[in-house]
Each structure stands twice: as C-alpha cells, then as structure tokens.
Amino acid sequence: MLFNIERHEKLRVKNYNNDDINVFCSELIDETIKRFHEETLWPIHKLDLEKDEEAKEYGFKDLYFGSSGILWLMHQLNQKINYKEVINRSLELYLCQRSDEERKEASSLFFGEVGIRLMKNKFDPSLENTSKLYDLIHTHIDNPFNEVLYGNQGTLIAAFEMLKSTKDDRFKQLFQETKDAIFKSWKWNDDFKCFLWAQNFGEELTFIGAAHGTFGNIQALMYCKDLLSSDEVNLINNRTKELLIELSLCSNDGDVNWRARVDSEKTPLLHWCHGSPGIICSVSHFLPRDKEVDELLLRAGETIWKAGPLKKGTSLCHGTSGNSFAFLKLYERFKDEIWIERASKFLAHSIEQSKEMRKEFGDYRYSLWTGDLGIVWLNHCLKRNHASLPILDII
Ligand SMILES: [Zn+2]
Under a CB-based contact definition with an 8 Å cutoff, are residues 361 and 45 in contact? Predict the structure, then answer.
C-alpha cells in the first residue's frame, strides 16, 4: 500500500453551492478580523502550540503559523486591516523575544525573521528593513538546512522578491551567491541515481517532498526562473524528470506516491509536506509535457482521490485543503474538469472538518498553513481555476 488508509476518511458528500462556501469563507474572515488583539495579535491554537511550547510566551509571528501569513492572506483578499501597524507589532514582538544569535540562526523565510520582514517590505518598507533583510539572507547562505521552509531555498525567494521590489543591486549579488550555494549542494546520489539535496545535522537526512525536500527546493528555484539562465532551467527540468521517475513508487493496482525520505521504509504519507500532493504542487506548473511524467502525475492524483480526505484536518500543509490544491494543479496542467470537481469536493470536506474542529476546540485555527485559513485561499484559487500556493507561487 502506498498510503496509510488509517490516515484517511471517507469523503462526506455535502451539497454545498458556491454561495454556501462563500458565506463560510466570509464568516471565517470576519471572525479572523474580530479575534485580532492589538497587543498579542491572533490566538494560538492548542494544536499549533503542541508543535512549539515556547510559542506560548510570544505567539507565532511567522508566515507559516503566524500573523505574517494571516496578513499575507488578508492583503491578497483586499481586506481592510491596518497592515502597517500589525506587521510592526509582529516584528517588535519577534525581536524582543530573541537574542541576536537566535535571530541569525532562525532567519528563515517561513519560520523566521526573513518572512516577517518580507511582509514589512510589502506594508511598511524602509531602507533599514531592506538592509536588515540583506544581512539576514546573507548570513543564512551557509545554514545546514537544504529546504524551502528553513533553508536558503526559501531565502532565495526573498532575495528575488527584494530585488524586484527595491531594484537594490545588492540583492542581485545576494541572489547569485545564494543560488550558487543551492546548485553546489544539489549533488548526485549514487544509491538513488539522481541529484538530491541532503540536510546535514551530524546525521545526513535526504527528504524528497515539498516542505523539507528536493521537490520544494526545485519549486523555489523555478519561482525565480526570470533570473536563471536557459541552461539552468534545462538542467532543472531534466533533473526533475529523472527524480520523479527514479524515486516514484508504483503499486500493481496503479497507485503512485513518493516517500518522505529516500531511505525511509515507512508507508509514505499523502500530504503537501510529504508525499505526492506536495510533489504535484511543486512541479506540475512548469515541467514540460512528457508522456512518462504525465502518467506519473495523473496516477499520483488518482491515488490521492482514492485515499480520500485526510483525517488530520483541513490544513494546506498536511490536510485536506493541501490535497485539494494538488487536484487544482492537475486541472491547470491537463485541463480535465474532473480535477476541478475533485478539488471542490475536498474543499467542501475541508469546511466540514473546520466546523467540527471549531466545535471541539471552541475557536478556529488562525494559521495560513496549519489552520482553517487555507480554506479561504483554496476557495479564492478554485473560483479562478488557478492554483497558487501562498509564498511559493505568489507573494
Ligand atoms: Zn505538514
């Protein structure tokens, strides 16, 4: 079995029409605005707190769990919020709770100061913020993470965005240095016959998927393709095809999935963060059409559909909304309406899961990547038949 059936549940058939879904989403946005507190920002959900007990003291300010991600969403949806005030309060809280050393270590795009300052650049730009971002991205070049969430693949996106928005030439050089480090660490793996990024923390770990692995890194590089040479783009396309084929697991009954780590023997997950939904989201929008690749992506999509929604809940990272995004990406590549239908059914299921969780915990989960707010963004994308993952496809 290429997925663990215990992690999935039967699709609930709900006859939601578009109005019902829009009403749910606007109520969720209204509630998000109402639950904002000018001192402590948004409430932290018990399930997010379990991931990081330390956050109890200062809350989440980052793009993944925290207020920066919420601001990103609200801005995309043209909501009236005092963005300047909220991003400055987020940064202030973040800074006063960390030493300079801790800030340098944690300067990632998704969980650290780089993401918060990138939003500050959007809502309240300043020369000081530009310089701080330059320093943080520069210091981050030699970090041991080789992934988009924590590593310099994420901060490459930040350097690219800063160059675009400020036209400050320092970011051209910084982009080049970061990109060179990323290509240098993309190495041939003789055991698995493809080019992979490994993470080095004493022990070497080689993740495959979107959040912590090679495919997420490829997506980050391709986000910045305007600054890549045609040779680099060709190399990425060729290596991506090899990776998809070499690392795919195919069962006799037609299922396709990829492991979380190259050497893992566990039943693979089916999340955005680990497994085929994230891999589809990372590559299906740019990889040239190819019979072998297309068949793998379509069979992987069928496997996600067959497995059903995730019991874990609604989130983009490891929940039903993230898997719905994979269907929408497949629609964009193959233009087959079946993927829109499936994405819509998973969206309706996500809404049901969100309502249940709200009953259980007494509140929504105000987080873009782990919480209910991913539903709002998924609905926005579905209405346009265009899948753009926050930060990875659109900033
Ligand atoms: Zn996850």
Answer: yes
